[in-house]
Amino acid sequence: MVVVVDTRKDRGPRHPEKAHRPDQPVQRKPDWIRVKAPGSRDWAKTGAIVRGNRLHTVCEEAGCPNIGECWEAKHASFIIMGDTCTRACAFCNVRTGIPEPLDAAEPENVASAVAELGLAHVVITSVDRDDLPDGGAAHFAAVIGAIRARAPATTVEVLTPDFLRKENAVEAVVAARPDVFNHNLETVPSKYLTVRPGARYFASLRLLQQVKEIDPGIFTKSGIMLGFGEERNEVLQVMDDLRAADVDFITIGQYLQPTRKHHPVVRFVPPDEFKSFETVAYAKGFLMVSASPLTRSSHHAGEDFARLRAARAAKR
Length: 316
Prior knowledge:
Layout (H helix, E strand, L loop, with lengths): L40 H12 L3 E2 H4 L5 H6 L5 E3 L3 E2 L9 E2 L9 H12 L3 E6 L10 H14 L4 E5 L9 H7 L4 E3 L9 H4 L5 H14 L4 E8 L5 H13 L4 E6 L16 H13 L4 E4 L9 H15 L1
Helix pairs in contact: 4-5, 5-6
Subcellular location: Cytoplasm
EC number: 2.8.1.8
Pathway: Protein modification; protein lipoylation via endogenous pathway; protein N(6)-(lipoyl)lysine from octanoyl-[acyl-carrier-protein]: step 2/2
């Protein structure tokens, strides 16, 4: 687990809504889930570029286990609109609270970091901003526009919030023409009340469907985590729902518990079960599937995008 050190004072607890909850059990991680601790020279260089442009990354904020591998390869996934989320999902390590105002310089700062890192493909995600009238859709569009202007050869993948009850938000992001539009369902419908209480399963599914209705040329992508106590048939139903929404790419990874106050890991799913889900997902018609214990939405996103594009071309 990556520990995020917050140097700003007087910000209170990272997860105030979880502070008084009883501690949950923490299972020992199996061998297949262990990763090498980060700390190489290239890892440090990537971190310096991120901080030099006053940016946040989902790699750090969400405690991604793949940060060492990705940053050593000078790959970083940026989290925009601050580091504080208006939601309080039971699985997420991103800070919860009242966000600060949007940084007008952020789109240019992101574009500068993308150019400096020489990224061929970049993933842009965000905290939930329920406090904004459009949920931050215009800011997403501004970031995409700035990257297009500064690094026109870079392909852009967005991983957006659900924009719940934010009229015309999806249209605004799609109009900026990202190459990939990702929105994660995160878990099966029966677990939403405990895992993702601020969201609605069918609203998220509808968002993905809308993207393809507006622009059929944009690749769509979604992901779920295993280990919350879901049943196999529920995972298969999510696959069917995503295919009905014409989603191209599914990611399936293992949930890892950030702290004792978060939802416990009910089960560590072995690699052979992930392989089985991958086989089934391809059979159901997904163009691209990434399923493994350490799979994350932005992990190997550039290589996966190249394979995704090739799979669509081969199908024509």
